[in-house]
Amino acid sequence: MTMDPSTEEWRLRKRLAECYHLINYYGWTEMIFNHISVRLPGEPKRYLVNPFGLNYDEVTPENLLIVNADGQLVGESAHKPNPAGFALHGSMHTAREDIHCVIHTHTNAVCAVAMKQGGFSHDNFYGAQLFERVGYHDFEGITLYDEERPRMLESLGDRHVLVLRNHGIAVGEADVARTFFLLWIVQRAAEIQCHAGMIPGPDVLITDEIKRSCAKDAAALIAGSSAADKMFDAAVRKMRKERGPLWAGDTV
Question: CA neighbours within 13 Å on the CB side: how many for 173?
Answer without folding.
Answer: 22
